[in-house]
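Researcher: Following up on the earlier apo prediction. This time include the ligand. It's 1,3-bisphosphoglyceric acid, with the SMILES given after the sequence.
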Amino acid sequence: MRTIDDLDVAGKRVLVRADLNVPLEDAPGGGRTIADDGRIRASVPTIRALRERGARVIVCAHLGRPKGEVKPEFSLAPVAARLGELLGAEVAFAADVVGDSARAVTGGLADGEVALLENLRFEPGETSKDDAERGAFADRLAGLAELYVGDGFGAVHRKHASVYDVPLRLPHAAGGLIATEVDVLRKLTEDVARPYAVVLGGSKVSDKLGVIDNLLGKADRILIGGGMVFTFLKAQGHEVGKSLLEEDQLGTVREYLRRAADTGVEFVLPVDIVAATAFAADADHGVVAADAIPADRLGLDIGPESGKLFAARLADAATVFWNGPMGVFEMEPYSHGTRAVAQGLIDSGAFTVVGGGDSAAAVRRLGFAESGFSHISTGGGASLEYLEGKALPGLKALED
Ligand SMILES: Nc1ncnc2c1ncn2[C@@H]1O[C@H](COP(=O)(O)OP(=O)(O)O)[C@@H](O)[C@H]1O
Ligand SMILES: O=C(OP(=O)(O)O)[C@H](O)COP(=O)(O)O
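Model: Understood. Below is the ligand-bound prediction.
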């Protein structure tokens, strides 16, 4: 892959695809504010390097999943402000993606100046599965710039216009973040020190259940927490109340459990669950056995015994990869499982990689020092798919 050092960027308009998909929370005075700016900070070095070399930098990114519609609550405007603070320079914000505002803002950039386009996913072409629709949008996006730099590692597993189709249309290079991420994750695909434990959680269950298929041939232990748990518990014949459930994946999960038993891979499932009457911090909640979740409750965290069990199963690991919080850590009553697993990684002394926007945010929010982990990756799904050995669209396009 070419790096930005291989591009002559001075005086050129350079489109940088970053991953600025940061968690937002309600601000005390109303509106939404950035809960964790880790992904913005991770994007700064490449943008700064391009500025210093006289590029006219046009940053593009997505926020959440607005599904091709303009939804003000998913605007990147707060991110533009934060990016400006971190760069110590003004970031001109375009109120659309490829419309009049984008053309005016990007056309008006001087050498070394930076602009951010509005949320790419306000445009249906960005995520379209139809090649022609995606291509038509990619043409318009590519038309804003002369060069392309891929640096949004967290989104490289998505075959989206800004990730895949635009680099096919412009001279391109990989930014420093992608280069660093790939360097570290490559170690986990080569000679991995064993026992190798993988911890999976979070809420993107349908996205991430599929990676287990491949992990069964690679990991020695797979620990399941977060929203993933309930499809496993249900597959074992237990009731899960109103918890997150992927009904259509029950057969797949049963097959995983069978294969694990046959091949000696250990699945570690929670033995207790924090179950609540509603998805709220102040809802009535308590610890129940994992096989006795009441019909009117939903599981929002792994319980204290599970936290101890997970830490024990990490203690002798030599390598640990963790993606996905163990519970709804954003709410204090459901943050303890995530805390126990983070501490378990630190205490293990293993080579530890934490991946994912929310997982990385969780360890910081819960007060853990980043230095306690070997690597904190900005990508969750992207890291998992990289570890599967899959060809990732955003990396493939940069290699071509
Ligand atoms: N039991 C659960 N039920 C619903 N949501 C959950 C549960 N456990 C964790 N979550 C949520 O999962 C989200 C993170 O999931 P995900 O996006 O898959 O992780 P990452 O961004 O680290 O890859 C968090 O916002 C957290 O609140
Ligand atoms: O947050 C992200 O991924 P992650 O939650 O797997 O870390 C990326 O920004 C990709 O977002 P997407 O999963 O909506 O395509």
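Model: The two ends are 8 Å apart (CA to CA).
Researcher: Noted. I'll compare it with the apo version next.
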